Amino acid sequence: MSEHFSGKEEAVRRTSLSHLLSPYRPRSAGEQKFLRHATFRAVALMGFITYFIYCNPEYSYVYSYLQGKYGIGTGRPLIPKLLKLEKKKTPDN
To answer: In terms of CB atoms within 10 Å, which of 5, 10, 22, 55 comes out highest?
Structure first.
């Protein structure tokens, strides 16, 4: 019965949070793939947020100011608009 519990300290060490998060522990192929994918998604999210804040004149004071003062973004857009809003016809018009 004592042999059953003989490797308990090693098992506890291998499953401890400090061991799992250690930068010196070799990562498995699955962990490396997951970390690359997570890093890519984080960078893409930050890029989308930055684009929305700085390149959306309706929501960005900085971009609106630069557009008015220097004419930035008034020419042909780099990314074409695929959807265009139509003006709603009201009985007053």
So the answer is: 55
